[in-house]
Amino acid sequence: MIRPGLCCISLSLQKRDPPIKFNTLTYKRFSTLPREEALEILGDRIHNNMVATNEIIKYCAENSWCYRLSSDLMPLISYDKANVDLTDLPNHDEIQDAFDNIECTIKSTGVRISAHPDQFNVLASPDEKVVEKTITELNLMSSLMDRFGLSADHNTPINIHIQNSKDGTREEISHRFLKNFHRLDENCQRRLVIENDDRQAAWSVAKLLDIFYPITNIPITYDSHHFRLNNPENLTAENAAQSCLETWGKFKPLFHFSNGRDHAMDKAHSDYVYDVHEELFLREIDLDYEFKLKDLTIHKFKESYQTYANYLRPIKAAS
């Protein structure tokens, strides 16, 4: 079975009264407030985000979907200038209760959870400050997954890009990545996976398979749109998807699906599906839908392509 994955927000739930949506808080705003007031506002927003996350996971369970966590659930917690820990927040106990509720929902529904931290996370950077910030961010996301009771393996993947293709040879970059990878918390290491890039001269599927994977043994997330934008080696989509699938070993792969907004080679994502990437639907995988209209896209695709989807026979992942 190919399970769709919802990425971060639900446009349907935002239409509820009251709406289910996330709140953030900038450091600029936080720093202008009296400390006590700032902590109260931050605590309220983090609690709101956890309540929203729980509701979205329930919604995904109703639809048999996977769910990608938002990367901004706990604004400012990892920002050194803010100097804030969860225990500093006046509603810390309420936030812990919200964590417990999320853990309970995940355990009772079996929704697969993943994360895709922002692009400024660069483990292969030659800049130690960038690496330290990356380690802090990735460990924070992994610790949140731990708090939700999630397995420390590739069933709950944390997906990132290498984000470096110029500071040394590909082999040097891969070894630098691996060196910093081992500085992550152990559970974070067990969850980390790598995605192919959309930029020319960056990390294509072939380069990940031929250079990065043999050095690191880290599973590769196949992004079908990125593959079409960056495939100088002229791999077939079928071979690219299958080769990435095999890097996941006993775990069910979680791949990414989107189309270009204005045309097939547009890096920006479209609202809805107009080009079915068949190599994805010939495999037994989970599939994050990275379209602008989020869950509305998944519902529409199911209606529009039901006959097509039923016709295809998935190829099972390696056991």
Please describe what this structure looks like:
- This protein is of the alpha/beta class and 319 residues long.
- The protein has twelve helices and eight strands.
- It has a domain at 1-111.
- It has a five-stranded parallel β-sheet.
- The two termini are 15 Å apart.
Fold topology:
Elements: E1 3-7, H1 27-32, H2 35-63, E2 66-69, H3 92-109, E3 113-115, H4 128-147, E4 158-160, H5 170-181, H6 186-191, E5 192-195, H7 205-216, E6 220-221, H8 224-229, H9 237-246, E7 254-257, H10 278-281, E8 286-289, H11 294-304, H12 306-311
Parallel strand pairs: 1-2, 1-8, 2-3, 4-5, 5-6, 7-8
Helix pairs in contact: 2-3, 5-7
Give the overall shape, derived from the CA principal axes: globular
Please bin the fraction of helical residues: 40-55%
Number of helices: 12
Radius of gyration: 20 Å
Distance between the termini: 15 Å
- The SS-based structural class is alpha/beta
Strand content: 5-15%
Strand order of the largest sheet: 3-2-1-8-7
Oligomer: single chain
The run of helices and strands is EHHEHEHEHHEHEHHEHEHH
Number of strands: 8
Largest sheet: 5 strands, parallel
Low-confidence stretches: 311-319
User: Mean pLDDT, rounded to whole units?
Assistant: 95
